[in-house]
Amino acid sequence: MLGSKRYVNSVTGLQAINILRFLTFLIISIVFTKIGLSKEQIGLFEVSLFIAGTASFFWVNGFIQAFLPLYRSNKTFGEKEQLVGVKSPEVFNIYVIIMFFSLMVFFIGLLIQGNFSVFGYKGNVPLLNVTLWYLLLSSPANLVEYIYMVQDKSGNTVSYGLGTSILQLIAAILPVILGYDIVWSLRCLVLVSLLKNLWLITLLYNYAEIKFSFPFIKEVLALSVPIIFSVLVSGSAQYIDGLVVTTHYGAEGFAIFRYGQKELPLVIMMAAGLHSALLVEFSNKDKLKDTYAKIKKKSLRIMHYMYPFSIFMLLFAKPIFKGIFNPEFTRSADVFVIYLLAIASRILFPHTILIGLKKTRIILWVSIIEVFVNIFLSLWLVNDYGVVGVALATIVTFFISKVSLIAYNYFKLELKPQDYIPVTWYLIYNFILAAVFIILDRGVLDSDLFFSRF
Predict the structure, then answer these.
(1) How far apart are CA 238 and CA 53, in angstroms?
(2) pLDDT at 444 (0 to 100)
(3) In principle, which of 49, 208, 275, 338 could form an S-S bond with 391, CB 3.0–4.6 Å?
(4) At a CB cut-off of 8 Å and minimum separation 6, what does 362 contact?
(5) What is the pLDDT of residues 15-45, one digit of tens each?
(6) What's the CA angle centered on 19, arms 59 and 179, to 5 degrees?
(7) Measured between alpha carbons, how far is 250 from 183 in angstroms, rounded to an integer?
(8) Are 224 and 65 spatial neighbours (Cβ–Cβ below 8 Å)?
(9) Cβ-contact 279, 267 below 8 angstroms
(10) Cα(377)–Cα(446) distance, integer angstroms
(11) For residues 284 and 425, what is the distance between their CA atoms, to the nearest angstrom?
(12) What is the mean pLDDT of the chain?
């Protein structure tokens, strides 16, 4: 049964809905190319979602990551012994926070839309109005899966994810199949987001205590501000890459670049599901060793799935891209294979420990340094490898950032890497990944896969 607790827990529930979300938009991308939709139309669709993500990813993630360790234990409402079925003022207040910021960003977007520019369009960029509505409604809807998680209803998370994914597929694909402009696909996605918000309201009615608390909001803000800035800074790399492409290329070039990033969200979503689910575990300070062991065990499980998948995709990226999309998108494989290497950093979780222990300031400082390192490496590598060099710089920067946090945990918290990282398996998998990459780079298989310019 889909929602059986035997197979679904808080970790797998979040991972499942993240994977479903990724697969949904991957299928949409494939269908768009197969039905002959122009690259310009695809580019406009992609940039609309890209703008919505750029304007919201950092504060939505920051607030949710701050909320999770505070849900069971906070200064305002104390500690919870029973979680399931209890109406929570914490849930209501995190909804207030996210809804407030969604409205604020929405109205800022309305004010600046006349000065916005992308793909050479000046002023009121096509699809910007519908993009703002999508941002307004999709941001608070992210709370649904986390309400299910804290209420230990992860089976419902999977059912909800499957249902909304089917609705999104229909909403995006049906209008263009019927011959309507791409803007109707986005309008239908807005409608799905509206339905998700209506469902969110029913969950608030069942699980949220309507009790506004400014002290609790201050707690969330105090913990979330460093997280928000660190997510903004560290997560800005892929968005900066995208913004660079929009200034140097048209909608067609942007579509090709975005299709090359299709793998990265899969690794991120698997890791993000584990990261978010484990944050709640840190509320019990007496079981920290058990939490570290759980991080090690769960991350190893992801490694066993994701490393073989990444190696397989590294070997066959170009024919796969040619087959599932069309020959015009073969160049996207050049970007794709570089981002595959991001697994070496995404699969490490020193930041989970620091956020769980509420030591978020170091994450912010490392993220700031990460940006400067990324800029330096990008300027250095772009001369030899073009846009692919920028992707390489991003991958190297991600790894340096995680190693820095691991070093902090070791020297400041006296927490050994092997306490929460399956070091042996990690080294084995990365050795194989690096070996395949080097062999391909030296031309034994297909060297033009990597360093061809955009």
Answers:
(1) 11
(2) 36
(3) 338
(4) 354, 405, 408, 412
(5) 788 788 888 988 898 888 888 787 778 877 8
(6) 90
(7) 18
(8) yes
(9) no
(10) 26
(11) 29
(12) 81
